[in-house]
Amino acid sequence: MKRAIIGAAVVAGVACLTATPAQAAPQIDPVKALKAESVAGRAVNVQSTAKVTYTRSLVVTTGLEGTIGFDGRGAAASDVAQTLQYSKDLLRSVKKSKPQEVEALGQGPIRMISSRDASYVSGPIVDAALPQGTSWVRYSPAGLPPSNLVLNVLEPATLKTLVSHRTSWRDGVLKGSIKAGKLAAASPSYASRFGTRSRSGRDGKITYTLWFGGGGLVERVSAKAVLPYGKSSMTVESSTRFSDWGREVTVLLPLRGDVLDRGQLGDKVPAEVPGIWN
Hints:
By secondary structure, this protein is of the alpha+beta class.
């Protein structure tokens, strides 16, 4: 009997030892990890693509690549380049209303340096309008382009909401879905892009996947939004990769002497920041 009791105790002890590592380790709080990166002089590299499908023949694809810098309040400035490409049918339509802009976009990427208040644009789309000695057109008010066309996970409130609407979270991969109205209520960038009162801001559904690194920081985001558009719907798909979190760099705005305000150039340059990222 005594031997049986000792044997049972040993088996129980082994079971405890083997069960402990198998228990799910507590997830690192991604919001806390993000806020810890909100320090002046720190930055992250971003590489993002997006595709907007209005109809089968009306499609625009775009890319964004560069650096986003932080301060104590979060994302504070960015230095990025964006590209834009239209499907043939959409290109014909846009050419009728913005022929010069379409031609310039085909010549090369748009470079943007942005703060929370303004965006500075350079590249073929504004070069012809600028006098010698200047390189940038200042658009204000304008803000930072989002890191992802659908889900800007650099906003703590947005990231917190996405985590709370997860459907699964395993091995550093989180999946979830959320209604457009709930996302608009949490995400300033989504609300500014799609509105809060429009059908795109209220209705529709967003599904997403987030990949986290060991420190709890987002390494990749993939999102798909199906939103009302006219009598049908449009689909917005966007994928973003983040790298070199915590790199020490400060995004500097262009020198005042290199800049002209958009208002000084009239209709020689686009009325708003070109592309679809702002």
